Amino acid sequence: MSRFVPADRKTPYLLPPSMDDWLNEDHLARFVVEVIDQLDLSNLTRQYAGRGSAAHHPATLLALLVYGYATGVFSSRRLERATYDSVAFRYIAANTHPDHDTIASFRRRFLDELAGLFVQVLEMAKEMKLLKLGTVCLDGTKIHANASRHSALSHGHIEKIEGQLRGEVQELLALAEQADRADIPDGVNLPEELKRREDRLKVMAEAKAKIEARANERYAQEKARYDERMAARSDKEQKTGKKAKGKLPKPPESGPKATDQVNLTDEESRIMPVSGGGFEQAYNAQAAVDTPTMLVVATGLSQAPNDKEQVKPMLVTLQTRAGKVGEVKRLIADTGFSSEKNLLACESAGIEPLIAVARDEHHPDWRERHSEPPPLPEDATPMQVMAHRLKTKGGRAAYALRKKTVEPVFGIIKSVMGFRQFSLRGLKNVTGEWTLVCLAWNVKRMAVLRQNYAEAG
């Protein structure tokens, strides 16, 4: 008698197999299907005309995408293959096999609906008593665009290459007019060579125009900030009767800089500094994370490498969703979001800001951690008030939540879920894809929270 378990791949099933028997009861795929089946997908289903062959239901395709992003499968071709190779994907697809074109077109087609579905999932988390909104941590992370930084052209380089190409065009035209073509190498087709250079000049002219348009937009923004600062300086001088201290603000310069770039693959992405040093073609992805549960309650995406302008849009999003998912009482963020304007915006929205005004020392005196700061002067500025609040014991304890809330979420999304680069291109598309990533994270996190609460209860 053999001591080994027989591996018989020839004998057929005596009874038809059930997909329901092939996954554990607490498997993530089951929870994804359960969540998606409870969503209102009427905005998606009504967009199907009903002509031609029967379509895969939006619930099936959405569940495939959510489970795929939650487990590190982002490519539509890999998702299609997984419906054959993976038991979990087979279960979600109910043993059907949507092709990659169907999955990719569904993802592109319904990007605008993802924000509403994202809120529905948060409402479900609230009903399940998994979400108790109060304090959120806001942060940003750079996500690589679906484009290489080496496919970017700078304004200075364009002007240099344009001069070279125009010279080559003139040379080729002169050769074409000559009766004696002895100087032309064998195999050279002058019309083709001319067209190639003219096409490149056309592409460069378009890229140059886009860079100049961006430069004009940047100049308008910088000029508005400059005028605002000069007006504030002038008002202060009139009130005090004294000349304002400090250097005069430097007026902005109009026109593009030689280093201004545009990417030919994804022109809406930007060159951004990344952690660890260096620069990459990327987008700045934002997330506001609930501190007790680590659920993402609001998302955003920016082309700016700096986070300072991201507080107001996030406040608008949080206020819009307050009636459905709960009100935010406190917002915690690091120095990248620090400005007096952002502090005042939080307070006017009825949200207590806890935004670091400067980086902490690596090795502060031990007495600072066990003492309260001296009282504030009566004429303290909002920035001084914030710095004082962060030095209190309560402020330090609350700000410490950021390191174990939003930073781990970004770390898990990038290192565990494996999402480090967008699959789509263009600001609108990647904004939708980032919402899909955070929706998948929330569903994955809800599965863990439900299990933890069940074991604790």
Query: CATH architecture of the largest domain, please?
Result: 2-Layer Sandwich
Distance between the termini: 48 Å
Oligomer: single chain
Evaluate the radius of gyration. Answer: 29 Å
What is the molecular shape?
A: flat
* Total number of beta strands: 8
What portion of residues belong to β-strands?
A: 5-15%
How confident overall, as mean pLDDT? Answer: 86
Major sheet: size, sense and barrel closure? 6 strands, mixed
Question: Are there runs of 5+ residues with pLDDT below 50, and where?
Answer: none
Question: Which CATH class of the largest domain?
Answer: Alpha Beta
Give the % helix: 40-55%
The CATH superfamily of the largest domain turns out to be: Ribonuclease H-like superfamily/Ribonuclease H
- Count of the domains: 3
Question: Helix-strand pattern, N to C?
Answer: HHHHHHHEEHHEEEEHHEHEHHHH
CATH topology of the largest domain: Nucleotidyltransferase, domain 5
Class from helix and strand fractions: alpha/beta
**Number of helical elements:** 16
In short:
The protein is α/β, with parallel strands linked by helices. It contains 16 helices and 8 strands.
In words, what does this structure look like?
- The chain is of the alpha/beta class and 457 residues long.
- It folds into three domains: 91 residues, no CATH class; 216 residues, Nucleotidyltransferase, domain 5, CATH 3.30.420; 111 residues, no CATH class.
- Helices cover 49% and strands 10% of the residues.
- The chain contains 16 helices and eight strands.
- Strands 1, 4, 5, 6, 7 and 8 form a six-stranded mixed sheet that branches.
- Strand 4 and strand 5 form a beta hairpin.
- Helix 1 runs antiparallel to helix 3, helix 3 crosses helix 16 and helix 8 packs antiparallel against helix 9.
- The chain is flat, with a radius of gyration of 29 Å.
- The chain starts with 27 loop residues before the first helix and ends with a helix.
- The model has no long low-confidence stretch (mean pLDDT 86).
